[in-house]
Amino acid sequence: MLAAILKSPGCLELEEVQDPQCPKGGALLEVSACAVCGTDVKMRQMGHKDLAYPRILGHEIVGRIAEIDRDCGLDKGDLVQVWPGIACGKCRPCQREEDNRCQEMKILGFNQDGGFAEMLALPWQCISRGLNLLPKGTDPALAALAEPLACCINGQEMAAVCRGDRVLILGGGPIGSLHALLAEAAGAEKVIVVEQLQSRILQLKRHTNADVISADGNEAEFLDSLEKTIFSETEGARVDVVMLAAPQIHIDSRLFRLLAPGGRICIFSGPGPGNYSELMDLRTIHYRELTITGSYGCSSRQNRKAVELLSSGKIKANWVITKRARLEKINDALNHSADRSGMKSVVCGK
Ligand SMILES: [Zn+2]
Ligand SMILES: [Zn+2]
Question: 113, 178, 189, 305: least buried by Cβ within 10 Å?
């Protein structure tokens, strides 16, 4: 089969390799679509702490079952979306439906080969909790957005986003866009997205009901002007949730000024080096009853929910896909994500 193999940081090569075998109790997939995550771009450039080389990347996977060694209601030919976690199923987090916190967690495209290939071997652990059967006629590329959407569900559950909330999303890329759609679907009273790039601002205005604010000027001035805008947009009430969906945002207690009492901040994007400092204004946290939370990855339950939201059309995210490429053109797909001109790119199979 053809596979895109990361040999070392900076060295991604397309190669013919041997087809994987169907693992005992597992399945073999023919990959139909694998979306590019910001992490894939980062890993192509500079590797990742959880990577062993050589590695096939890609963890936002949809494929057709070519072989399955388990009686589980799924058959050869079924189109499935894959939760990329390989969880033990036995530890305390796994037993509590928090399998993204599994004590022995491994992830496809990180610790095991992922979806930027024609075929993918799924170990037995993936079968019971990790495969979501898709309805006939599903666009595999759209279904590949289920994993990043599920990560957003995790972030919004951690920040307890609910009906009537005012939600501020800092960063309007693919993840910020999915957060905006999700917050709208959750019944948020107001969604505000802050973004730098004009092309993305236009997309967000066209396809969401969010108020989109252009982020320009230097950062210190920007936060002051953002505070004024938020103040006037909410008649002085400020927002209930701040979702950090851009790694370059400097995180410190000035963000508290944007929050209403009882407000929540979710550190969704992994902050870049030097982009975080003191968030320990404990007096303000106490008097204004603030919550600071983080989120990383998604559970298989959240992944199932994301598939349902996309399949039912409750979330319309087609527009978030701005490039489709064949595996042979994987570098174009990664570059589209890296240059941030559009939103999300998806590598599509035959
Ligand atoms: Zn991802
Ligand atoms: Zn576990």
Answer: 189
Ligand 1 centre distance from Cα of residue 81 (Å): 14
189 plus 275 within the same structural domain: yes
We report the CATH number of the domain holding residue 32 as 3.90.180.10
The model's confidence at residue 110, banded by pLDDT at 50, 70 and 90, is very high
- Ligand 1 center from residue 56 Cα (angstroms): 14
91 alpha carbon, closest ligand = 2
From CA 262, how far away is CA 51, in angstroms rounded? 39
Q: Using CA atoms, how far apart are residues 305 and 289, in angstroms rounded to an integer?
A: 30
User: Going by DSSP bridges, is the β-strand pair 259-267/291-294 parallel, antiparallel, or unpaired?
Assistant: parallel
* pLDDT tens sequence across 122-152: 999 999 889 999 999 999 999 999 999 999 9
Torsion of CA 340, 345, 347, 350, to 10 degrees: -140
The count of C-alpha atoms lying within 13 angstroms of the C-alpha of 15, restricted to the half-sphere facing its C-beta, is 12
Residues 237 and 329 in one domain: no
Q: How far is the CA of 13 from the centre of ligand 2 (A)?
A: 33
Among all bound ligands, the one having the nearest atom to the CA of 151 is: 1
Host domain of residue 118? 2-148+298-348
* Nearest ligand (C-alpha, residue 303): 1
Q: Which of 294, 310, 325 is the last residue of a domain?
A: 294
